[in-house]
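Lab notebook, entry 437. We have the chain sequence and a SMILES string for adenosine-5'-diphosphate, and the next step in the workflow is to get a structural model of the bound complex before anyone spends time on docking refinements. Request logged below.

Task: model protein plus adenosine-5'-diphosphate, output structure tokens.
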Amino acid sequence: MACPVHELAAVEPSCQRTLVSPGAPDEGVTLPPRALGRKDGATTADAIERFEDLGEIDRGGTASVRLMFDRQLKRTVAAKRLRDDLQGNEELMKKLAREVQIAAQLQHPNIVAVHDLAFDARGYPYILMQHVRGSRLDVVLREVHDGQLDDDVLKYLVTLALLVCDAVVYAHDCGIVHGDIKPANILVAGEEQLFVADWGLAMSYRRSPAEPHDVASEHFPFGTPAYMAPEQASGRVDAIDPRTDVYGIGGVLYHMLTGFSPHEATDSSRALELARKGHVRPPGEVAIWKDLPAGLVAVTLKALAPNPGDRHQSVRELRDELRKTCGEHLPPPTWRFTRGNCVVRCHQEVHDLLMLVEGTCLEIATDDTQGYRLRRLNPGTLIGRDALLSPSRAKTTVIAMEDVVVRVVSREEISRELQRCPWLAPLVRGDSSESVI
Ligand SMILES: Nc1ncnc2c1ncn2[C@@H]1O[C@H](COP(=O)(O)OP(=O)(O)O)[C@@H](O)[C@H]1O
Ligand SMILES: [Mg+2]
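Result returned:
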């Protein structure tokens, strides 16, 4: 069988694990001597032989991302390493190692899949990951803003924003805050396909009060001032939580509506000052487009409230409000998985019911006495039925055997439908014991 069953079924449930986070100098991350750039350390010769460097794809604040051809698996991958001028910086190399550890825990159709951490001939580390063939959202938005805002454009933008929400909701369920949500960290690969990248500033937020914070305060302010939440901009480490990403997604929505970042400024210190104050100009004053949809503007400004208590309290809440506000413009929510990817992982928290629409999957259940039980799932199969009533943990792992499309049915959608059709409720909940025949 083509699927790596033994590997995928044996992995620990990622969402239950305590994750290391960026920032703590040595916490959870030990780099081998070679990773510190020492010429005397052994290098991973296999990796050097295996990957052919095809040139730079793009670069960010600290990293250069290069296209590599994997000679062994005959596919292209993306390799993220520090920019040449920053190579050898021990702190940044450790940050890269922390990034790979966090990103490797996250498996979601809208999150860039991480393959491995490898080392180049000089012993410098780089992250190997899925190569996304697409464009950065900021580049896409530049083109979109050259045209008019009509219903199709609005539908497209909100569909993309909802996919970002899906990815971030999942990360939050795993206890991870992204910390740098902005258009340049979002890769658009098609009409309805998008990946959240760059988990370099991600951190776990479910700490007990006794645990030291895993982000050293001397790293502040970190992130991108043009999109940064006030608590992040002013270095209030303890105040960073999922609502910080609500602000980040608010910034993405603001950029979608106006073509500019929420703290647009000529230099980054001015942007940082605006971010500290949470000063955001009304979208209507900034946008080239006239007649912005009032509902979407209101959702955006709520997400960008300076005080976290005034924002949506979770990305899930923001996503629901977006859907409610722009519902008539939207297609039903679907996720796409490529062959071999995990649709649901055993023990993962499941909030929505999933219906397999296209393609087949393999369900793997582990059983103390019988070992693995495998079942083929065909289109029409419901995945995560228990989520119908309340969030629950998946009991099995489901892997895409080919490219598959899954329709996501939220509990809110189900209760909306049940209100429209009350006689269905007892059937769905399974409490139709009053039946007389
Ligand atoms: N997996 C990928 N596939 C294709 N392009 C990528 C991938 N990851 C990153 N990039 C590109 O490289 C740029 C820099 O990567 P990023 O991880 O954001 O680096 P930094 O941490 O320096 O900001 C991104 O803005 C994006 O354009
Ligand atoms: Mg980046």
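Notes for the group: The chain has a mean pLDDT of 83. Worth checking against the assay data. The first strand starts at residue 51 and ends at 59.
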